[in-house]
Amino acid sequence: MGTWRSRFESLVVTAVRRHLEVDLVTDLEAVDATDVRAVTRLYQVLDRRPVYSAGLDHVVQTVDQHYAARASPKPLTRRLLASLLHETGGHFEELGRAQEAAQCRRIAAELAPGGPDRTILYLVSAISSQQQLYVLGSLTVDAVLRALLHEVGRSGRRIRRARILGVVAYAAHSTGNVERLRGAVEALSVAADTPGYRALVTYYRSRLLIAGSRIEEGLAAEREFTRAAAGIGPKDHAHQLVAHLLESTASRSGAMARASEAALRGDHVGASGWYGQSAEELPASPLRSAMRLFAEAARVNGGLLPSATALRESLARLCADDLFAARTVTDVELLLTALLMRAVDLHEAGHEAEIVAELADFLGEFRGGTAVGRPQDSGAYDTDARADMTLVDFLARTTAPVTPAEIVQGLPGRHVVWVNVTGAQVGEHYLTVVTLRPSHPVPLVRRTHVSAADGKALAQCVGEDSEDAPAEAVRRVSGLFFADVDPDATGARILVVPDSVTWAMPWNELAPPGAAELTISMSAGAALRTRPAPAVVVPRVIGIFDEVELEGSRLEARALEQLAAQGHIRFTRVHSLAELHGALEAAPYDILTVSVHGTQSDGFEYRMLLPDGPSSPAALLRLGLPRVVVLGCCWSAKSTERADTTAAALSCLVAGASQVVGGLWAIDDELAGRLLADTYDRHLRRGVPLPQALRQAHLALPPDLRPGAAGLAFIGRG
Asked: Which has more pLDDT, 296 or 642?
């Protein structure tokens, strides 16, 4: 009976595919797979809470720009876009923007006629259970699952919601997509109309509980599923799905199942071995990377990394299996932070300090440093959507840790300071600062318990609030960060690698008074890969300005015009992104300045409000950027809130810039213009290196204005 049913269902699936001209996810060519993954990136805009209108506009504009120009996107892409736009239209309605909502639904209907039922049949066929979805890019599968969850919510009576949601839950579970699995379980708990589907809800809830470290509750739910599944007969529509899960639960035969079982027992040695075997059995994929990560996490949890050598071997294994590819599957930063804390523990017990610096910098590589200084495929930047997707690929590239000796040799004369805030438990935080001094490859490691007074001072010195921070708070934080910078090192050049908590801080205010320059970077490795900006006798400067609304933009433009009139620079002004693109293609430039409004939105929906319309950071990836870029835009250098999005400043560094000046928060435009005008005078007329010129210009401001100006930071290689 089972064989006959399987053959019949296979015939039905084949017929549906032929009728609908279905693309299988596994059959997508490289370009089309990139399109599908780009759709997932657009979906992520809708995951933000609250959803801002700027983000919704970004979705529609990107679809119009990227897909309207293509004669015939793949049917799978069209279906996904239609679902995305329909969901976007719903958000527009919530914001009271009926006209935009209607536009979304009109475009969606043109892309994929036939309504949600037809789309559901198409998408279910595209991810047939016969495919090994776990070998695919997780973003590709996620796009299909996200669309299915949305379409089921508005489907007609002919669609068996429980059956579809069971398919989605299975696909999400087999690809390690916890977020989609959670959505499928919530929907299935409402739609379940047989004992079998209710049993599936129990099983997948057990997986979610275990994934959330609620082990005992998860095991209890699993036992409840086992009891319920024993009574599910063949007439139940969920019989086959339940039987498959019951068999896998009972056998525990696979390496992945054995690894989970060992982890639940607290057998970290066994879990590490079985997760490692799971990685070896899988082809190169994000799931393979995640299995390797889980294996190393088991070693950390079990105290199986007793030395610096063991930590380096752990890092080598992670790099060999493309650790950063797992960023779309699980929390990579959590493991790297645990490795860093293990290294600090070992150092405090008498082991070497070098491994602490290596791991601190590797964390910076994960946060975006690995995207800097890599060869680019220029063909990937034809639109914002494709460029943004390519940036995710850069973020996921594997990189090797750099040693303190390599940093001292490659960045001579600099203090390098890594800053990380970690929480051991609720209400308990530690500040770990690693300082590498010039000409001395042994770093100093200082881990400090964050007291109530320290925590208050740190909070006062974050972001725009730092403009009103008391002087005592600034002094306290400066002491915490720079305690190991030689106080007698007048003229010190300092490179700071902050974590995401400390990125947006007033670094020029916090720096020791005698410091000649203060730069920040995602990682020292990124700085090492970045070529220095060459000195030019008469630099060529190109700029785009908003002189209508921004007084600071007018100040900056006048300063550059005056320098051009004096013969210190050759200056070109443009008024649109297209004009800027053409100018950069026609001739080489040394400095680009963009002085316009920037929006507060995070990551790829951040918009620079150029005179000819808004533009995303991804647009910068399509430009032949000079070595120096000045972004006089609010929030252009902010640290992003998600591991798979980036700020405009990072986009510039990925596109080839070596030095970027950007706004960490909403800096006053007139003050920014004043600061940049003085910086240009020192750099372009007097020949002071740019990072030192910015530092000098900051210190030359009246003391009461300096906190407000500290939102402009120098990023990259000094």
From this structure: 296
